[in-house]
Fold this sequence. Notes:
The complex is a heterodimer.
Chain A: H1 11-22, H2 32-48, H3 63-67, H4 82-85, E1 96-101, E2 104-105, E3 120-123, H5 124-130, H6 132-138, H7 149-157, E4 161-166, E5 176-182, E6 188-190, E7 193-198, E8 203-212, E9 218-228, E10 233-241, E11 246-256, E12 261-270, E13 273-282, E14 288-297, E15 302-311, E16 317-326, E17 331-340, E18 348-357, E19 363-372, E20 378-386, H8 390-398, H9 403-419, H10 425-438
Parallel strand pairs in A: 1-5, 4-7, 5-8, 6-9, 7-9, 8-10, 9-11, 10-12, 11-13, 12-14, 13-15, 14-16, 15-17, 16-18, 17-19, 18-20
Antiparallel strand pairs in A: 1-2, 3-4
Helix pairs in contact in A: 2-7, 5-6, 8-9, 9-10
Chain B: H1 3-14, E1 27-29, H2 36-45, H3 50-68, E2 92-94, H4 108-116, H5 121-128, E3 131-136, E4 139-143, H6 146-151, E5 155-158, H7 159-165, H8 167-173, H9 184-192, E6 195-201, E7 211-216, E8 226-232, E9 237-245, E10 253-255, E11 258-263, E12 268-276, E13 288-298, E14 304-311, E15 316-319, E16 322-325, E17 331-340, E18 345-348, E19 351-354, E20 360-370, E21 374-383, E22 391-401, E23 406-415, E24 421-430, H10 433-441, H11 446-462, H12 467-482
Parallel strand pairs in B: 3-7, 6-8, 7-9, 8-11, 9-12, 10-13, 11-13, 12-14, 13-15, 13-16, 14-17, 15-18, 16-19, 17-20, 18-21, 19-21, 20-22, 21-23, 22-24
Antiparallel strand pairs in B: 1-2, 3-4, 5-6
Amino acid sequence: MQTTTERIERPEDRFLAAFEVHAGHALNGNGPRMQALRREALTHFARLGFPERKAEAWKYTNIGRKLAHPYALGAPAPALTRDDLAPYAIPGLDAARAALVNGRFEPGLSSLDGLPEGVVVTGLAEAAGAHPELFERHFAHYADYRGEVFTALNTAFTRDGLFVYVPANTVVERPIHALSLLDTDADLFLQPRLLVVVERGAQVRLIESRHARTGTKTFTNGVTEIFVGPNAHVDLFTLQDEGDAAAQVASRYAYQEADSYLATSTITLSGDLVRNTQNYLPDAENCETHLRGLFLGRGTMHVDNHTLVDHAKPHCYSNELFKGILADRATGVFNGKVFVRPDAQQTNAYQENKTVLLSEAARMYAKPELEIYADDVKCSHGATTGRLDAEAMFYLRTRGLTDGQARRMLLLAFARDVIDEIAVEPLRAHLDRLIERRLP
Amino acid sequence: MSSTETDFLQEVADSDYKYGFVTSIEAETAPKGLSEDTIRFISAKKEEPEWMLEWRLKAFRHWQSLLEKEAYPRWAHLEYPEIDFQDISYYSAPRTTPKYSSLDEVDPQLLDTFSRLGIPLEEQKVLAGVAVDVVMDSVSVATTFKAELEKLGIIFCSFGEAVREHPDLVRKHIGSVVPYTDNFYAALNSAVFSDGSFCYIPKGVRCPMELSTYFRINEAGTGQFERTLIIAEEGSYVSYLEGCTAPMRDENQLHAAVVEIIAHKDAEVKYSTIQNWYPGDQEGRGGIYNFVTKRGICAGDHAKISWTQLETGSAITWKYPSVILKGDHSVGEFYSVAFTKGRQQADTGTKMIHLGKNTRSTIISKGISAGHSNNSYRGLVKIGKNAANARNFSQCDSMLLGSTCGAHTFPYLEISNPTAQVEHEATTSKVGEDQIFYCKQRGISEQDAIKLIVNGFCREILTKLPMEFAVEARKLLDIELEGSVG
């Protein structure tokens, strides 16, 4: 009889070993820069290593447990039809659609007609070849692949994703809906990437929805970079609903120029372990930034929202609201940081986190931080955790509502603080219905 | 910002430490360095029983293992050079160590020091009715009102005396709230603690006076390692004050104190601190490094522990007075004002660990930063899974006086029970121009306006201090703000 002893590897080693093997499939672009960049990112990845349990930014999220699973690194390309995508459409939404399957852009499943002249919505790999100048100017300029291990890993391995470009002074009237689907029989590790470039004075509304057709174990390490040009206006709505087997680390980097507006809503409805790392850098005067989030946790779901608003320049405004409802054995984490650099006078920043716990075993860890180096500022934050207000419940019960009805009504009202801010009506209505159905 | 306001704030930031002077009392000092021999030397000096020495040695070995692993707490928002623990002398006692029965016997130079600090012993004894257990460097040199307290069965003495005369009490409780394994500086303190205060309030006794201890660091290059243990038996009450100022120094002085409080069923302990140690010069050289572990446990139902602090001194402050709310219906409170200027750095806050049912905690923290200082609030509110109906309210406000300082808030909220209600709020702002304008309109000078506004900002906390302390605290804050103007 033969006994095999497997050497216990660090999860990092698998990626380091796979780098050369997958080099041909990776996002290489035309110029030598991409290849050098990928190699540099890999070096940073090797140096940084995956976060240890003690790492402050991962204090409440044991990511190592998820990474230990032997996921396949190469993604299959299933042949899907438009009908397969139909269940994930947003009813009544008139939008241009970009479809991604297992992180790969699928032009055949997308409907991108009728976009204004000059607007580009295409796969990232395609864009690297077709728009090299634009691509080089923005790709990996905002994402911190030198300091963040998951961003370094994505930069070294990403193959495709989505590229959205809106030229100067162009208003995209219809929203752009990026629909991402997971469809795989093997346990997969995916590393898609999204690059959004909105030039001076342009306006766009982006909807990103993520779903899974299969219940296979997956780990998505996604990176999003958003460039908001001077006086540009960007709305981004993200819906995370990939089912109980999908883990993800979604890192988002937004860079804002003068007089710009950026609002993002991150709605997390399902997932195994979901970590959203969001870094916003309003790097010029008079920027306005909104971060909104809502998470519903049930089962053993773990949702971690980690945000940073780095106020680098004076006269900016930021407002952050993250709300959560946790049931069963779900765990929620919120770590928000407002950073005001020494010269960023007249900054006005607000941050709020509210969570409702519905069960004995649900957990919430909140860490709202302020780090302030300028004196003429107005910064505040608030965090509350508790159960539903007993008096409000009582009032509704006296009006004849059952316990369940009263609870759902209050929870829906709680969630609507975030949902009602969504300026695309069909999406708002869709989310409202979805949340009502999904309330624990 | 108008130029006079800027000038004033500049003056505040530039003002030198007012209480910098050195008393020359001959001291008996251990040579620099730390080894098992040092521990044995300290223990022998203090005529300690064998178990105490053993405990110190265990703590020392643990500390050494931490040192080898370089397990210093580095997570705080503080920057300071590595501390050379072998370059510190770990024991220093004033040479005249007999116990005085009256003040006349006390070294007149020592009395002079206290009167220059504005805390004459005689006056306090007569006017305030305060029993003062004066700790000068490391050995208790004067204890008053002891006889009166003895009548009630209250024990209030130096730690060394307690080890000798009440060994059972000390042995039972030492390290029960802050074990020597708790953290790096608690381990160091447990190994080398020189002296401190011990306080025992028997069942059902309400201590009739505020117990207070003044700490002074007075020997160049000597670490101060105080250890305080307060035990409040069922249904008792005590209010304990601790306050300090220290002479000017060129060399960094390390201070690593440990305070343990045990409040049994229905007991209440109120612990107030004014900390005004030497903060260093304009460049931040020479100030005190203050690494303190303070923790209380509400061991029984309906117990209450309240921490109030005014922190204005030290180059580095690392201090998180905490409460473990173990008994049902127990209450924890933390009220703090931290003022930093020059190059001072403070990372201070609290931990409220809710374990029992219906436990409540309140945290009110006010941070004021000026000059090039950094002032951080760091706090943890933890609701255990059995802490049904726990309630916490936290409020952390920061005020910035000038554009070169920093104010930070790092709260941690860990909630594992759905019936808990936890609220946290924080704000950061500067002195409002409209407020200053309003005051000036009423004929109040800009400087007075700022004092008024800052005092108002802290009022909520200062009123929590016992009366004798509140007066001193307000004076201290005014002087800190006045800078060279006053």
